[in-house]
Amino acid sequence: MHSSNEPKPPVPAIEDYALIGDHQTAALIGRDGSIDWLCLPRFDSAACFAKLLGDEENGHWRLAPKGAGACTRRAYRPDSLVLDSEWETPEGTVRVTDLMPQRDRSPDVVRVVEGLEGRVTMHSALRLRFDYGSIVPWMRKSDGHRVAVAGPDSVWLRSEPKVRTWGRDYSTHSEFTVAEGEKVAFVMTWHPSHEPRPPLIDPHEALASSVDDWRAWASRCRYQGPHRDAVVRSLITLKALTYAPTGGIVAAPTTSLPEEIGGVRNWDYRYCWLRDSTLTLGALLACGYQEEAEAWRDWLLRAAAGDPADLQIMYGLAGERRIPEYEVPWLPGFQGSFPVRIGNDAVRQLQLDVYGEVIDSLALALRAGLPTKPHMWSLRLALMEFLRSNWRKPDEGLWEVRGPRRHFVHSKIMAWVAADRTVRALEENPGLSGDPDHWRAMRDEVHHEVCERGYDPERNTFTQFYGSRELDASLLLIPRTGFLPPDDPRVTGTIDAIRDELAHDGFLRRYSSDQTVVDGLPGHEGAFLVCSFWLADALHLTGRTKEARELFERLLALCNDVGLLSEEYDPVACRQLGNFPQAFSHIGLVGTALTLFGEEGAG
Known about the structure:
Elements: E1 18-21, E2 26-29, E3 34-39, E4 47-49, E5 60-65, E6 73-76, E7 83-89, E8 92-99, E9 108-127, H1 130-133, E10 138-142, E11 145-150, E12 153-160, E13 165-168, E14 171-179, E15 183-192, H2 203-218, H3 228-240, E16 242-243, E17 248-249, E18 272-273, H4 277-286, H5 290-304, E19 314-315, E20 326-327, E21 341-342, H6 353-367, H7 376-390, H8 409-428, H9 436-453, E22 455-456, E23 461-462, H10 478-481, H11 489-502, E24 503-504, E25 507-508, H12 515-519, E26 527-528, H13 529-541, H14 545-556, E27 568-570, E28 575-577, H15 583-601
Antiparallel strand pairs: 1-2, 2-3, 3-4, 3-5, 5-9, 6-7, 7-8, 8-9, 9-14, 9-15, 10-11, 11-12, 12-15, 13-14, 16-17, 18-19, 20-21, 22-23, 24-25, 26-27, 27-28
C-alpha cells in the first residue's frame, strides 16, 4: 500500500500492457513492472491478480527498482513472448525479464532481475487475491517458499538466490540489491492446494528454452513480405491465445476492458468464437502453421458436434457449452467502467452466420489439404439441413446485439456462403453424398433475396438489415466471400458508403453512431480495428491498392510499443479500447498483410 507522502502511480492505459503466457493462460504486465492480470490455471479461471479491473488490493505483483515509476524501455526478445523491461536509475541500470514457460504440469511465472550497470535496489510486492480479487489467502513459509493457500488454490513463491522476504498488509515483500552482472530470479507456481509441492523448475534454463522454443516456432512463418515483424508478432500473439490442450483460441485473455471508458459495454472474451474460425484458419494456413490450423479445425469439429439446432456462437476452451454471465460487484472496473462481467450471455443468441463460417472453415481446411476426419461431411450436411430450414429467420447478427432480432444482411450472405461451399464440394467430389441441385437452388434463393431486400438502390449500398438505412462494416466482406465480384457497382458503392458514413478519422466503427437503436445498449464505442483491416482488404480487391496500403500503415501505427492491439481504438483520445490483446484484430493484421503483399510475401 502507498504511504500518504508517496504519490500514487498514474493509472495505466490499456495499451500500457504487455502479454506473457504459457499456451494455457496469460498475464498482463504494465510498464511499471506490475503484473495486473493473471487467471490460473486457465484463461477462463478466476483471476489471482485483478488490479487491472480494480486497484492494488485486488491483487498484483510489482517488481521494479525501489521508488521507480515506469520502465525506461521494454521489448520482447525478437520472435518470442519473453519480455525485457529496463530501468535507468541514478544508481544504475537494471533489467527484469518476464515469461511463463510452457508448462509440464503446473503454471509458472518466472521473473529474472539482472544488473546491467551500477548497483540498483529492487523491491518486489506480491499481493495475491484469489477469486477475482476477493479472497485473501493464508500465507506461510515452507521449504524455502512463501506459500499462499485459500480453498482450492495455492501459490508457491521462491527466489534464487534467496532474498529477504517479509509480510506486510497481507502482501509479501522483498528487497535486494543487484550489481552489474548479478541475477536474482523469482518463480511463482500455482497448483491445486490439496496436492504436494509442485516440482521445481530452473528459472534460467526455463528462460533459455522459452526463447529457443518461440524462435523455432516463429521461424516457421512463410510470410517474407513488408512488415514481417508485425505479422510475426501477431502470429505469436495468436499462438499465445491458443489453449494448447484442445487447440481452441480465445478471443482475448481479459474480461470487461471497456469499449467506452466509464461505460457498460464490458464483456468477457476468454472464450472461443466460431465467427473467427475462417479468418483464423486462413491466416494460419497461409503462414505455414498447418499443425495449429489442424488443431483449431479439430476443436471446431468437436465444438460443432451434436444437434445442429444447438450450435452456439462461442464455447469454452475445451468446447464447454455453459458460459453463464454474472457480475462481480466488488471490482469497480477499468477506470470505473462498471459492471465487471464474468461469462457471456451472448452464448444463447441465434447467429445464423456461424453456420456459414463453420462450413466455410471446413471447406477451406479440405482445400488446404488438412487430413479429413470421419463424419466431417455428414456434419456439414447436418448443418446445411438446419440452415436450409432456418436461414429466413431474423437473428442477432455477428455483433451479438442485445436489441431485437433482425434480418441482418451479413447473416444471410453467410448462409449463401454455406450453400455455395457445399455446391462446390459436391461438384469437385462427385463421390460425396448429396444433390448439388438441391443446394444450388437454396444458394440462388438467398442471393436473390439479399439483392432484393438488403440493397438500397437509391444510395447504391447494401444495408445492415432488411429495410434499414443503417450500414454495417461486415458488408465489406462481400467481395471476399465471392457473393458478388469486386468490380460489381453494388460492391464499390457499399465500400464508398461505409467509408463515408462509418469512418472516424479514417478508422471504421462497426455500425452507425446511433447504436442504441440496433444493440439496445447505452453509450458508444470506438473504431473497431478488424473492420478497418477489412476496409483495406476491400479497397485492394477493388483496385485501390495505394489507399489500402496507406490505411494498413496507419493501422500498424496503432499497435502499442510491443506490437499489440486491443479490440477497438478511440481516435479522439488516441487510445486503445476493449479487451486486450484481441485475436480478431491480430487476425485482421495478418490477413491484410497477406492480401496486400501476398505475392511478394510468399515464402
